[in-house]
């Protein structure tokens, strides 16, 4: 787009739009990104619906009526007081091990071999983590989410769409991931708490 802008400016002997338009836009976006990175968003914005019937919402994101009710119940509870999280079976299998909560793919180097990855969601940029993790737990996702699909390919247990895993689980907590039933249990807290 920028090359086309420069080409058009050269051809029409005008000033490129990028020279005056993008700097303020980039500055505004950086400031907005900074503000949003400091915002602890609520689980829901606006009014929730009573029943979810839309097939793509269910298949792609794993948001069902039951899961919505679990989220609403969880939003009334302090996430740090939760010891069991109900999600969606992303990939079968049961494993227990130490958790590693990561905020983004740039932290993958913190994940040790066999640890349980706990993240809001994954995307292709998380690829290197899948060769290391013992299991995967995400806040968001359904059967067709990135985490679920890749974990099935690797034969790694996964529970997705838990809603509160990144707020309930801390790095070092011992967790059991039951990918057969879609349940994550915090067996013990880091430091014996």
Overall description:
- This protein is an alpha/beta fold and 193 residues long.
- The chain has helices spanning 2-12, 22-37, 55-61, 65-75, 146-154, 165-168; strands at residues 84-86, 88-91, 94-101, 116-119, 135-138, 158-160, 174-178, 183-188.
- The chain is elongated, with a radius of gyration of 21 Å.
Summarize the structure.
The protein is an alpha/beta fold and 193 residues long. The chain has six helices and eight strands. Strands 1-8-7-3-4-5-6-2 form an eight-stranded mixed beta sheet, covered by helices on one side.
Number of helices: 6
**Class computed from helices, strands and strand pairing:** alpha/beta
Head-to-tail CA distance between termini: 54 Å
Which runs of at least 5 residues are low in confidence (pLDDT < 50)?
none
Radius of gyration: 21 Å
Mean pLDDT: 88
Q: Strand fraction band?
A: 15-25%
Percent of residues in helices comes to 25-40%
> For the largest beta sheet, what order do the strands appear in spatially?
1-8-7-3-4-5-6-2
Largest sheet: 8 strands, mixed
Overall geometry comes to: elongated
List the helices and strands and how they pair.
Layout lengths: L1 H11 L9 H16 L17 H7 L3 H11 L8 E3 L1 E4 L2 E8 L14 E4 L15 E4 L7 H9 L3 E3 L4 H4 L5 E5 L4 E6 L5
Parallel strand pairs: 3-4, 4-5, 5-6
Antiparallel strand pairs: 1-8, 2-6, 3-7, 7-8
């Amino acid at each position: 787009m920028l090359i086309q802008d420069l080409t058009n400016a050269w051809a029409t002997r005008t000033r490129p739009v990028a020279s005056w338009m993008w700097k303020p836009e980039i500055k505004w976006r950086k400031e907005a990104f900074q503000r949003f990175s400091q915002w602890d968003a609520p689980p829901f914005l606006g009014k929730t619906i009573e029943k979810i019937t839309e097939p793509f919402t269910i298949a792609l994101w794993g948001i069902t009526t039951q899961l919505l009710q679990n989220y609403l119940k969880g939003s009334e509870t302090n996430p740090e007081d939760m010891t069991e999280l109900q999600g969606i079976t992303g990939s079968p299998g049961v494993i227990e091990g130490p958790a590693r909560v990561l905020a983004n793919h740039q932290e993958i180097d913190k994940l040790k071999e066999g640890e349980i990855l706990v993240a809001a969601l994954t995307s292709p940029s998380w690829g290197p983590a899948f060769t290391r993790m013992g299991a995967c737990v995400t806040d968001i996702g359904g059967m067709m989410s990135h985490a679920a699909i890749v974990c099935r390919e690797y034969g790694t247990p996964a529970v997705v769409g838990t809603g509160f895993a990144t707020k309930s689980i801390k790095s070092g907590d011992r967790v059991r991931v039951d990918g057969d039933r879609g349940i994550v249990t915090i067996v013990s807290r880091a430091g014996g708490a």
